[in-house]
Specification:
Pyruvate-ferredoxin Oxidoreductase, domain 3; globular; 189 residues; alpha/beta; six-stranded mixed sheet
C-alpha cells in the first residue's frame, strides 16, 4: 500500500492542520508516513503546500515527485492549477471553486477563476472534482472548510482510513470546544 497526498492552499486556510490529521490517521493505522510542508509566507497569505506520503513499506523521500500524487486537495483554483503537474494519471484532484489569491499572485491583479477552472477540467477531465464553496451552509467558522474538503476526499475511498479515524485524531489535535463544528464539517458533503 502506497499513497501520495498533496495539499495546497493559501496561508490561514488550514492546510497544515489537514496534513497533520491525514498523517496522524495513517500512523494510527500502522503505516509509515513522511511529510513536508512549504509554508513560506503562510501567515501573510502566501502559498502553502504539504506533501504527505504513506506506505506499509519504506518511504525514501517526503516530497512527492511530479505525476505521482494519488490525490491533490486544493483550497482554491489557482493553487489547484499550480500543482496539477503533480497529479498521477489515475489520481484525483479536489478543489474549492472560490478563488483566494496568494499574495504573490495578487500583485498581478485578480485572475479569471472560471477560465482557470475550465483549463483544469480540460487537463484533468473526470479526475477533477470541484466543490462549490458558495453553496455550503454556514459552518460556524470558515476555518472548518478544510474538514469539508477532507470529508469529500474520504468519500473517494482513496485513503487507507475513514471518517472515524479522522474523528479520533481530530480529538487528539484540537481543543474540545472545536470538535463538534469540525466533525459536522467532515460530514457536510
Amino acid at each position: 500500500m502506497k499513497l501520495n497526498c498533496l495539499i495546497t492552499g493559501v496561508g490561514g486556510q488550514g492546510t497544515v492542520l489537514l496534513s497533520r490529521l491525514i498523517g496522524d490517521a495513517a500512523l494510527e493505522r500502522g503505516l509509515n508516513v513522511r511529510g513536508s510542508e512549504t509554508i513560506g509566507m503562510a501567515q501573510r497569505g502566501g502559498s502553502v503546500v504539504s506533501h504527505i506520503r504513506m506506505s506499509d513499506g519504506l518511504i525514501h523521500s517526503p516530497l512527492i515527485p511530479p505525476a505521482l500524487a494519488d490525490i491533490i486537495i486544493a483550497f482554491e483554483p489557482a493553487e489547484a492549477a499550480r500543482t496539477l503537474s503533480f497529479l498521477s494519471p489515475g489520481g484525483r484532484l479536489l478543489s474549492f471553486s472560490r478563488p483566494l489569491q496568494p499574495v504573490s499572485a495578487s500583485l498581478a491583479g485578480p485572475y479569471d477563476a472560471a477560465a482557470l477552472i475550465a483549463g483544469i477540467r480540460e487537463e484533468a477531465g473526470p479526475r477533477f472534482t470541484l466543490v462549490d464553496a458558495e453553496k455550503l451552509p454556514a459552518l460556524g467558522s470558515p476555518k472548518t472548510l478544510n474538514l469539508v474538503l477532507l470529508g469529500a476526499a474520504l468519500r473517494l475511498d482513496i485513503f487507507p482510513f475513514g471518517r472515524e479515524d479522522i474523528v479520533t485524531v481530530l480529538k487528539k489535535r484540537l481543543p474540545e470546544k472545536f470538535w463538534d463544528m469540525n466533525i459536522k464539517a467532515l460530514s457536510l458533503l
